[in-house]
């Protein structure tokens, strides 16, 4: 009998069981989804008063891109991209100085100082990454840069997380295309582990650990897609079926280092990869997250986690994960789906 395989993450102290004995077909992951009526959506045009004033609004005026913000009693209309405070924030900046620290050595506590925002990616309700045109997706990426630049300038912000929840099973409460941004006063464990390992590897070899991983994965069975400036592959120790990562080929610590050409190429990469995922698995729920630290040893990237299986008692009690679809097979299926998607690029 064929044995399942234990794999260790490139960087994290994390193990996964590649359980191909429990293998499922891609069609087994497809689920019936609930459709939301756009008229009830606070993110759609005409409903701007249902949200707090926008901290950033992209507008088109006489052919030029204008960047502005809303005011207390005024909301811009005719917008292209809109960034608003989250109505139910996990982190806020309303605090007193005496609340800066609490607890004891054994029971540490800090006030959740920070920011929690929503970037509404398009006035069109269903213009998600897999179907958005390249120009619109490029605007969204530029908005990420604008908000990241502002949030990183605040002395109390230690990390900025840009993430996307797509589908109710992935945690999205609204189906309108949107991203969330959370600025925190601490560095999350996973990103800190990646940074620590990057620093150690650089000290020992003089090279970037992620650059070396990229070079190896471009030649592996887990390779999925590349263009001039970005590469996509399924990680060796994927913890989710059909998980994939997106990396810039040029070493960069954050998206703030992207130039215009790189923004365009990332928009293309996002469109074909998410379009392929959408067509392969009938628009599955997924989470994605940007990993970025403004340190020269770090190599920023996007991690995409399709939410196709449920983590149960073993995963939650051990931190060891079970993936029923090998990254090699997932990559093969995604490559086929993306090859079909590339024909849709004309005119985007």
Description:
β6 (102-103) and β7 form a beta hairpin. By secondary structure, the protein is of the alpha+beta class. The termini are far apart. The chain is built from 6 helices and 16 strands. The longest helix has 22 residues, at 260-281. The strands form 3 sheets. It has an 11-stranded antiparallel sheet with strand order 4-3-5-8-10-9-14-15-13-12-11. The chain has a 3-stranded mixed sheet with strand order 1-2-16. It has helices spanning 134-152, 189-205, 209-217, 260-281, 313-318, 327-341, and strands at residues 5-8, 15-18, 56-61, 64-68, 79-85, 102-103, 108-109, 115-120, 159-166, 178-184, 223-226, 230-233, 244-248, 286-291, 301-306, 321-323.
